[in-house]
Amino acid sequence: MTKKQIITIAGGGSTYTPGIIQAVLNNADRLPLSEIRLYDIDEQRNDDMYLIIQYMLKKEGFKDVVISSTEDPEKAFTGSDFIFSQIRVGGMKMREKDEKIPLNHGLVGQETCGLGGFAYGMRSMNGLLEIVGYVQEYAPNAWILNYTNPESIVSEAVRRQYPKAKMINACDMTISIEETIAVNYGYDRKNWIPTYYGLNHFGWYTSIYDKELKRDVMPEIIEKLTTQEMEVADFNAGDKTWQEAFSMMSVITKNFPQNIPNNYLEYYLYPDMVVEHADKDYTRANMVMEGREKNTKEMAEKIRDGATEDILNFNFGEHGQYIVDMATSLLNDERRRFMLIVPNQGAIPNLRADAVVEVPAYVGATGVEPISLREPISDFHKGLMEAQVAAEKLLVDAYFEGSYQKALQAFTLNQTVPNARVAKNILDEMIEANKEYWPKLV
Ligand code: NAD
Ligand code: G6P
Ligand code: MN
């Protein structure tokens, strides 16, 4: 009998927590559970989530599962088996600045891409390294399953400071793309073995083998993408921003029909179109604050008021299931295949070995086993990736060395930036806006 597991959610107050816990409860046969701990630095958000999760456990009949919320890392991590990490250093208020500052200078303003992503990266490295440090101290045998963004940057930072950490870095975007394609064009994703390479939020599919149909379905999907735009599916269904992002996949595919792209490439390949469509006074952060964040507060409020019906209001989809599948794969040696963010080390043979890349990997009792693509990638993809990797590495250098010069080089090299003058203007404004969070750069 597998020992009942203790799961700690770092960033317990995240609006994604109910969806993740729902997936944990749905998979209790594969992931037996003794305890859920919510760890956050914001007591109010953590307390709200405590009420919501307590309500869910009761509703689903999990009487024996212990739940706690704490701001004390020792209590949160000691004895824990799995840490699901999803923190957002600076919260949505700082996300809003990441998006609006570059937009005010006419550049892409986005959570994880462009200079917004770089500003977020500088904040996030600090918060995530602190958590990884706590886990090394209080739960050195636990696995950290990380969703905290921007993934490429924080993965590079963790790789440098804690190269032996038991940590898996993952992004839900590929699974969400696959689900959306399958729903729109009438496939069953469960039959798929997709192959993909890139950096996080910066990659391409090379094939999608369908086990039932016994063929690579990528060419026919590309054909469909160029003629018939997709409707957003999965946990983002009905969301206008995501609809636009998925529509951009058709634009990319029409112009570059060799591969299915990750939708996030829109920020690097069509920054002008993205900026044209953006509202610099009302960005994604505003939508999320008025949507998911408000819904979460309302759920907690209703529970405090003693309401018992129609309380739960959150998106449930592949995001929670994906991280739970990773945990069960480790625990039960299931050897499932995921797209994971790992040091390259030859997986993409003609890309620098020390890049952090996103490629298929099998997960089992011994950890992560990435596959090697064997074939070299094209100059087009390689050129785009090399520049992006170098920019990200310079940013991580800037963080560890406290170097203004490296930060300026990183900002200048970012693929959404047309010149060093605007890079410097935005960097200086970001330093001011992030005083509380960034290391001092000299
Ligand atoms: P959120 O702001 O709703 O929640 C994040 C929580 O983290 C907040 O409650 C906040 O108080 C807490 N927090 C901040 N700094 C902390 C620290 N140092 N220690 C502990 N807790 C801290 O944000 P969200 O929208 O739920 O997103 C959470 C994170 O997950 C973000 O980094 C986001 O980019 C990421 N995310 C990643 C994926 C992926 O595919 N990799 C998907 C969705 C979200
Ligand atoms: C996808 C990406 C995440 C990103 C999230 C943003 O899930 O994979 O990396 O954080 O979208 O979604 P939001 O609804 O907060 O804009
Ligand atoms: Mn992601």
TrEMBL record:
The residues that hold substrate are 95, 149, 284
Keyword flag Manganese: yes
Entry keywords, A to Z = Cobalt, Glycosidase, Hydrolase, Iron, Manganese, Metal-binding, NAD, Nickel
- Alphabetical list of InterPro entries matching this protein: Glyco_hydro_4, Glyco_hydro_4_C, Lactate_DH/Glyco_Ohase_4_C, NAD(P)-bd_dom_sf
Origin organism is Enterococcus gilvus ATCC BAA-350
* Name assigned to this protein: Maltose-6'-phosphate glucosidase
Which of this chain's residues are annotated to bind Mn(2+)?
171, 201
What residues correspond to the site Increases basicity of active site Tyr?
A: 111
Q: Which domain of life is it from?
A: Bacteria
> MF terms per GO, please?
hydrolase activity, hydrolyzing O-glycosyl compounds; metal ion binding; oxidoreductase activity, acting on the CH-OH group of donors, NAD or NADP as acceptor
Similarity comment text for this entry: Belongs to the glycosyl hydrolase 4 family.
Q: Which cofactor does it need?
A: NAD(+)
Active site located where?
172, 264
One BP annotation, GO: carbohydrate metabolic process
Per its UniProt record, what Pfam families does this chain match?
Glyco_hydro_4, Glyco_hydro_4C
Q: How is the cofactor bound?
A: Binds 1 NAD(+) per subunit.
Q: Does the keyword rRNA-binding apply?
A: no
Which segments constitute the Glycosyl hydrolase family 4 C-terminal domain? 196-417
